[in-house]
Amino acid sequence: MRSVTPMAGAYVLLTAGAGAFCAAPAFSPGTSWPAVALLACVYVACGLAGRGPRGMGTFYPVLLAGAFLLPPSAAALVAVPGALLGQVEQHPKWLRRVWRAAQLAVAVWASAQVFEALGGPGAVSGPRFPYALVPGGAAVLVLCAVLTVLDGGILAAAERVPLRSAWCGLFPRTLAPVAVHGLAGLMMAVLWTSSYGPAAALLVVLPMCISCWVFAQYQRERSAHQATIRALVQAVDIKDGYTRGHSERVGQASMMIARELGMPGERAEVLRFAGILHDVGKLGVPTRLLRKDGPLTPEERKVIELHPEYGHEMVRGIGFLGEARAAILHHHERLDGSGYPYGLVGTQIPEFARVVAVADAFDAMTSTRTYSRARPVPVAVAELERCAGTQFDPVMVGALVRALDREGWHPMVTADETGGVSVARGETVPLRGASAR
Question: Which of 34, 60, 234, 419 has the most CB atoms around its CB within 10 Å?
């Protein structure tokens, strides 16, 4: 939700309305407000202890404990204060907070409904603990399913991603942490209803805080990864100013292809890294060659063509890049074997490299560079289709064409807006001649 489309805004408001409808019965007499307040305060406190991107989402034990202990309408309220007070990194912050509160309220309400329908409250207070695992497990599954549906819906509404791609892989990624935290939530509920009371249940907060710390470390590591990517891209942009913005746009086009192919989210993110860093090897190429106004000599072209290998060496030790390293090395290979650096043929070329090659060529053709004015998107697409099967993988070309037909092309603005000048040295632009810049 970088920018709010009318459809995304309407989706958030609809979800907020659903959340309000679910929670409304709690405001009738009979609701145990001390229990609601205590659980809500614990959820807020855990969120403050675990500051970081989407930190509140870590504390599902408290939310599930509310679903196991309270009526569904009251349980829906437990997450609301924490979600509204939670840290948000991107704008519009108020809408993101409302979205998170509404999403969690609906998911917890549905989870509590299933738990109650399966006799969970009696099993917890009985206590019939082994049987309580059945409604507890069902409640966890429902919580994950609702979160998946809502997350996929907002992604489709805000980013115009196909629902199939938006939902791909979301459920298992949600289920893994929530299933573990569900056991902690059930333990809280059992202790809460025991003779030891709520004070004993709050002891479960300690391992939750440890879990929060571990999650915060993961988020910090992820932020460090992002900072590493940004630093490398900025270094390339400074050295080769003519292509400023090109790396981000190749990452953007690569993500469009990944979503169209239905790649899982984590793998698609690595592919985006590959697109962004595909030209990092230019840091090892003399600046005079990158900025040369005239044609390259054969000897100069050989130097330029070393940049994939330079790039691969630069990122060899960055473990989180995974498959992206192969894409950096092989994004100039061609299906017919005429590419470089190793002349790989067909499926010998890694999948990520075949995606980045198409994204790289598309952006090079649709951007203004030295020797080349920007081509209209339909012309660039026609050229990609003409070269599919020889230079480019037809599957990747087809995926990009379908994504462009549905979403259009809204590239990031380049720094060179003055009508500038050159096709970046060594880029994979399809040409009718034997060579290609």
Answer: 60
CA distances from 288 to 246, 294, 425 (A): 19, 11, 11
Query: Any residues with CB less than 8 A from the CB of 381 and at least 6 apart, and which?
Result: 362, 400, 401, 404
Q: Could you give the 3-state DSSP secondary structure of residue 234?
A: helix
394-396-397-403 Cα dihedral, nearest 10 degrees = 140
pLDDT value of residue 354: 96
The Cβ of residue 252 has, within 10 Å, a number of other Cβ atoms equal to: 18
d(CA 305, CA 426): 6
Tokens of 324: 């992206």
CA distances from 273 to 61, 232, 254, 315 (A): 33, 11, 9, 11
DSSP state for residue 137 in the 8-state scheme: H
Cα–Cα distance measured from residue 411 to residue 295, given in angstroms and rounded to the nearest whole number: 28
DSSP state of 169: T
**Tokens found for residue 84:** 């509204």
Report the predicted TM-score, pTM, of the whole model to 2 decimal places. Answer: 0.56
DSSP-based helix, strand, coil % in the chain, nearest 5: 70, 0, 30
Q: What angle do CA 161, 162, 167 make, to 5 degrees?
A: 90
Q: Which residues does 234 contact at the CB level (< 8 Å), separation at least 6?
A: none
Best CA proximity match to 270, nearest among 225, 211, 233: 225
| Ordered alpha helix ranges (H), 367-393 | 377-387
Residue 437, C-beta contacts closer than 8 angstroms, at least 6 positions apart? 364, 371, 372, 423, 424, 425, 426, 427, 429, 431
Q: Which residue, 406, 417, 431, is CA-closest to 165? A: 406
Q: Mean pLDDT, the chain, as a whole number?
A: 82
Using 50, 70 and 90 to split pLDDT, how confident is the model at 370?
low
Q: What is the torsion angle, in degrees rounded to the nearest 10, for the CA atoms of residue 94, residue 165, residue 375 and residue 431?
A: 150
**pLDDT one-digit tens code per residue, 271-318:** 999 999 998 998 888 888 887 777 888 899 999 999 999 999 988 888
pLDDT digits (tens, 9 = 90+) for 112-121: 999 999 988 8
Nearest to 154 by CA among 99, 104, 198: 99
In DSSP terms, 388 is beta-bridged to 392
